[in-house]
Amino acid sequence: MLKEFKEFAIKGNLVDIAVAFVMGAAFNKVVASFTAGIVSPLIGLIFKADFKKLKFILEPGTLNDAGEKVGEVALLYGEFLTNIIDFIIVAFVMFMVIKGVTKMKKAKVEAPAAPKGPSQEELLAEIRDLLKK
Question: What is the pLDDT of residues 66-82, one digit of tens each?
């Protein structure tokens, strides 16, 4: 069993998946930084607020002695929308990468050579002639 696991772990596909996972994690950080630093401020201009901090307050809460809000209940939809934007960007880029890889693989596959011998029309004509006899 240990030998089988070793063979599985050393196969190229597993290594490719591991590399893709690490690159995906790093790419996700780049996208999150792009969304937080560029996209969110631009959208924030529309809402006149920090986009990631947008929320719908259900229960306002109260101020304590230190002046901090306590007991506030809110829906943090700005952070949720930021994460949705991150996901859409990552999904689109992954779609484009897979589309490119698929196109490269199709280019490598050569069209099968035409079969040697008589064509379909010639075979049908031969069958017709044999049936006439």
Answer: 878 788 888 988 888 88
